[in-house]
Amino acid sequence: MTKRVVVGMSGGVDSSVTALLLKQQGYDVIGLFMKNWEDDDDAEYCSTRQDLLDAVSVADTIGIPIEAVNFASEYKERVFGYFLREYQAGRTPNPDILCNSEIKFKAFLDHAIQLGADTIATGHYAQVRERDGLFQLLKAKDHSKDQSYFLHRLNQAQLSRAMFPLGKLLKSQVRAIAEQHGLSNHAKKDSTGICFIGERPFREFLNRYLPTQPGEMRTPDGKVIGQHIGLSFYTIGQRQGLGIGGDKESTGEPWFVAGKDIANNRLIVVQGHDHPALLSNRLTALDSHWISGTAPLLEHSYAAKTRYRQADAPCHFTHLAGDQCTIAFEQAQWAVTPGQSVVVYDGEICLGGAIIEQGSN
User: Fold this and answer.
1) CA neighbours closer than 13 Å in the CB half-sphere of residue 204
2) Which residues of 15-25 are buried (b: 16+ CB within 10 A; e: fewer)?
3) Cβ contacts of residue 29 below 8 Å, gap of 6+?
4) What CATH number belongs to 279-360?
5) Which CATH number is 4-180 given?
6) Residue range 244-266: average pLDDT?
7) Which pTM value belongs to this model?
8) Strand 127-131 and strand 134-138: pairing?
9) Tens digits of per-residue pLDDT, 95-139?
């Protein structure tokens, strides 16, 4: 009996080629377009309608059925609510990670099973393999596109039903395949930014949901050098949009956000990209999730990322208890940000990760 695979089709080239490859391999393929956001759906920054048209066009070219499903209420409850709570608390969350674990590999997976799916597939650049009854998440062949960072909160049940056909391909090969088979979106620009915000100005978007609470901008030694509009609107390492200028005692180097004094509503800023206040030799993290179900080993050598676009940094665990951990790095890490995820690797294997509580020296 032919295995049925439901493919999450976004209208982009990656998910389109995913569906094409699976169809060529003889699977019974069904496309599923997810609508996860309804607010200001007809605004200039929302591309949902065009994305659906692109997905339908590709499905027609490939010769597979496609269905549109609305997960907007689940998304608002499970992802966007968390996103706002974290920003209100002064942290910087990564909603795309939660979108994968809660929507694409939960709500979407449940719906796909109702459609008779044996597995689901997405256009993520990652790989999954089974070893001794355990499913492992691996980096993609194309390390410049690897998305295992965003998938690190998947569990064994989710990975056992997941396929990532692009994991062994380079992005350039994916676009070439799309063009070769006449897919209308072969040259479509990749989407960037948080899934529900798209290309719109981030501060403008956040301002619609969170109140401004102005306060002082201070240096670590207590000098007041400006005003901020609300701690929620800034993130550690931020350089743009601080509005600091003309300080006579300035060294001329750019200013960066280095910390938040939540209790006193103060934003801590420093000058210079490599200021010590921006560097952390270790971090503590909470809400850890390990893909295998077993925590990593203390004092064993691993590598970790504290943000997506970052080279692997050699590290080891100095503390592991419950869902809490402390990680020490061989070299200081820049702008370790509360609310972001630290994701841990053993070579090509993604072990899982945790939510950063704070960086320290």
Assistant:
1) 6
2) bbbbbbbbbee
3) 4, 5, 6, 7, 19, 22, 23, 62, 64
4) 2.40.30.10
5) 3.40.50.620
6) 83
7) 0.93
8) antiparallel
9) 899 999 999 999 999 999 999 999 999 999 999 999 999 999 999
